[in-house]
Write a structure and sequence with these properties.
Largest sheet: 8 strands, mixed
Strand order of the largest sheet: 2-3-1-4-8-7-5-6
CATH architecture of the largest domain: 3-Layer(aba) Sandwich
Helix content: 10-25%
Order of helices and strands: EHEEHEEHEEEHEHEHEEHEEE
Strand content: 25-35%
Structural class: alpha/beta
Number of strands: 15
Mean pLDDT: 95
Number of helices: 7
CATH topology of the largest domain: Rossmann fold
Distance between the termini: 29 Å
Bound molecules: S-adenosylmethionine
C-alpha cells in the first residue's frame, strides 16, 4: 500500500480534493482519501507519481511518512540521497517559524545522511506540513513536470485548460478508456484527455471549429477523432464511450444551434442517466440533474457551473 500526500493550491479546495479522489479511485476503487485543510492524503495501491502529474490543483505531492508531534521523531525511509532540502508548509492559521524549523530538520537529516543541501534542485525534498489539527511528514523525489498540450491560437470562447483537465479527471477515466466531447470547439478537452492517455472523440456542428481542433491535435501529434455533426450524433457511439466531458455553449463568441439555456436541457435529456457525465455551463442555465455541482467565478457577469454525475 502507498500513502501519499497532496497540497492543493487553495483556489478550489473541494474541487481539488474531488479531482484527486476521482483519479485515485480510477486506479484503485478501495483507495482511502482524507483531507485536512488544503492537504489531501491517499492510501491506495498506486504511488503519488501516478496521481500528481494529472491533478490540476496540486502544488506539492509526495510519499506520506505519517504524523509527528515533534521534529525529533523524524524518520525518512530513504537511502542517502545525493542532495536534499527541507520545506515547512504552513496550512494552519497560526504563525510558524518555518525557516527555523527547516534548519532544525536539515541538521537532523544532515547528521543521518551526510548529503549536500540543495535548495534549487534537490534529489529529495522532505516536508513538514502543519495544519490546525496535526503535523505531517512526507518526502518527494525529483520529478519531471508533465508536458501540457499546446494550441496554435487562443480563442475567446475556449475553456481554460486547467478546468478542462480537471473535468476530464472528474470523469474517473484512466488510460485507454474513451471520452466524448460533443461540443468540442477548439478541442481543449480532447487535448487534455489525450495528454493523459485517454482516447477522445470530439463533435462540433461548426466545420470551422472541427478544423481548428484537428490542427490543434496535429500540433501535439495526437490522434483523437473529430466529427462535424450535431451533438445528437453522440447517440450513435454511446456504446463505445466511457464518459462524456463537455463545455456547453453559453452565448459568448461561440455559435449555438438553439438558445443556449434550452440546449442544456435538451442535451441532458438526450444522455442516458447511467452514462458518466461531466459538463460545464453558465450559472443560470441550471437543469434538474442529480449531480455534484461546483461554481467557478470568472468575472462579475460570468460564473460557470461544473456538474459531475
Ligand atoms: C463553449 S464552445 C466549446 C469550447 C471548447 N470547450 C473549447 O475549449 O474550445 C461550444 C461549442 O459548441 C458548438 N455547438 C453549438 N451547438 C452545437 C450543436 N447543436 N451540436 C454540436 N456542437 C454545437 C459550437 O460550435 C462551439 O464550438
Amino acid at each position: 500500500m502507498h500513502q501519499s500526500f497532496f497540497v492543493t493550491s487553495g483556489e478550489q479546495v473541494e474541487l481539488a480534493r474531488d479531482e484527486i479522489t476521482s483519479i485515485a479511485k480510477s486506479y484503485d476503487k478501495k483507495a482511502v482519501i482524507k483531507s485536512d485543510s488544503r492537504l489531501v492524503t491517499v492510501r491506495s495501491k498506486i504511488p503519488y507519481t501516478k496521481i500528481a502529474p494529472r491533478a490540476t490543483f496540486v502544488k506539492i505531492s509526495g510519499t506520506l511518512i505519517g504524523t509527528v508531534t515533534g521534529i525529533t521523531q523524524i524518520r525518512v525511509p530513504v537511502a542517502k540521497p545525493s542532495s536534499f532540502a527541507c520545506r515547512v508548509v504552513n496550512l494552519s492559521t497560526k504563525t510558524v517559524s518555518s525557516l527555523h524549523l527547516e534548519k532544525e530538520i536539515g541538521t537532523i537529516l544532515k547528521q543521518k545522511w551526510n548529503s549536500k543541501v540543495s535548495l534549487s534542485n534537490p534529489h529529495v525534498t522532505v516536508y513538514l506540513i502543519v495544519t490546525n489539527l496535526r503535523k505531517y511528514m512526507g518526502y518527494s523525489k525529483r520529478q519531471v513536470e508533465p508536458k501540457r498540450p499546446e494550441k496554435l491560437l487562443k480563442y475567446p470562447h475556449e475553456l481554460d485548460s486547467n478546468l478542462a483537465r480537471c473535468m476530464v479527471n472528474l470523469s474517473g477515466l484512466k488510460q485507454g478508456q474513451t471520452l466524448c466531447d460533443p461540443f468540442c470547439g477548439t478541442g481543449t478537452i480532447l487535448l487534455e484527455a489525450e495528454s493523459m492517455g485517454i482516447n477522445a472523440i470530439g463533435i462540433d456542428f461548426d466545420p470551422e471549429m472541427c478544423g481548428i481542433t484537428k490542427r490543434n491535435l496535429a500540433l501535439n501529434g495526437f490522434k483523437s477523432c473529430v466529427i462535424n455533426a450535431g451533438y445528437h450524433d453522440i447517440k450513435k457511439m454511446m456504446g463505445k464511450i466511457d464518459a462524456i466531458v463537455t463545455d456547453l455553449p453559453y452565448g459568448i463568441s461561440s455559435k449555438s444551434s438553439m438558445e443556449p439555456q434550452r440546449l442544456v436541457k435538451d442535451f441532458v435529456s438526450a444522455i442516458p442517466k447511467k452514462k458518466k457525465l461531466v459538463m460545464v455551463y453558465k450559472k443560470g442555465f441550471d437543469v434538474a440533474i442529480k449531480a455534484k455541482k461546483y461554481e467557478i467565478y470568472r468575472h462579475k457577469s460570468l460564473t460557470r457551473v461544473i456538474v459531475s454525475r
